[in-house]
What we know:
Structural class: alpha+beta
Number of helices: 2
Strand order of the largest sheet: 2-1-3-4
Largest sheet: 4 strands, antiparallel
Order of helices and strands: EEHEEH
Shape: globular
Distance between the termini: 15 Å
Helix content: 25-40%
Amino acid sequence: MRISVTRTGGFGGIRRHATLDTAGRADAVGLQALARQALAAGRDRPPIGVPDGFSYELTVDGTTVYCADPRLSDAQRALITAVLKEGA
Length: 88
């Protein structure tokens, strides 16, 4: 499973993007479960966020959803953190 996260907004307005492929990873099953939960809680278009908050675009195997701080689900927050930390 290929998971991409794009983060925009924030105080500095800096865009950040990372992609993580779960193939061959020891934690693949957990990441794939998080990805399915994150997609289910996402929206089909970007939500209105808060001033200086982050907005996210999550793409999992070609399916894209949107979410924004401070209304991230636990699965979205965990997935975003993992992909931005470990993805390329």
